[in-house]
Amino acid sequence: MLQCDFQFQYTDFQLQARLQMQEQLLGIMGPSGSGKSTLLKSLAGLLQPQQGYISLNQREVFNIAQKINVPMHKRRIALIFQKAWLFPHMNVQQNLQYAENLGAQENVKFQFEQVTNLLELKPLLKRRAHELSGGEAQRVSIGRALLSQPDLLLLDEPLTGLDRRLKDQILPFLNTVKEQSTLPMIYVTHHGDELDYLKAHILHLENGQISF
């Protein structure tokens, strides 16, 4: 599981992140500007903290004292953003296979057939990104993340911008991923009802400080 204790400083903002994750699904809530996205980006390797360490499954991916900073694509941590980022020149199948080819082949948790069935993506495989609705694109984004064979899945407000109908479509898929796998997930949101639905263990982040 995830263990971390690090500090990220940006101008007058400071994030102090100390976590020892034991739950499969950890929800994090907090107001805008509290450091939620900074936390996820630091874990994924998009941002580099100034102090501390990050360890996943007893493998250090970041340690400032030991000069360890594993690149994002080698951390086995997948990050899903608010907006689904798909390759526009590829269809859905090619987007999924791209992630599949990048995944760790010695530790395969998710198969292509399994993921397309789980997220009901088979009818979409030949479509390109611009032909997908917001909910469909986010399902593809989740599928691509799973096929990268991560040890940790980070979701940064993945339902923001989607209407109630699309939210009600995506949440059951995320719940199915939770129930049919052992993949640890950290889910950041402003909306407690999403975390209640997923039965997440909830932490709060405010002014760069995590409260349990």
From TrEMBL:
<dbReference type="InterPro" id="IPR003439">
    <property type="entry name" value="ABC_transporter-like_ATP-bd"/>
</dbReference>
<keyword id="KW-0547">Nucleotide-binding</keyword>
<dbReference type="InterPro" id="IPR027417">
    <property type="entry name" value="P-loop_NTPase"/>
</dbReference>
<protein>
    <submittedName>
        <fullName>Molybdenum ABC transporter ATP-binding protein</fullName>
    </submittedName>
</protein>
<dbReference type="InterPro" id="IPR017871">
    <property type="entry name" value="ABC_transporter-like_CS"/>
</dbReference>
<dbReference type="InterPro" id="IPR050334">
    <property type="entry name" value="Molybdenum_import_ModC"/>
</dbReference>
<dbReference type="GO" id="GO:0016887">
    <property type="term" value="F:ATP hydrolysis activity"/>
</dbReference>
<dbReference type="InterPro" id="IPR003593">
    <property type="entry name" value="AAA+_ATPase"/>
</dbReference>
<dbReference type="Pfam" id="PF00005">
    <property type="entry name" value="ABC_tran"/>
</dbReference>
<keyword id="KW-0067">ATP-binding</keyword>
<feature type="domain" description="ABC transporter">
    <location>
        <begin position="1"/>
        <end position="212"/>
    </location>
</feature>
<dbReference type="GO" id="GO:0005524">
    <property type="term" value="F:ATP binding"/>
</dbReference>
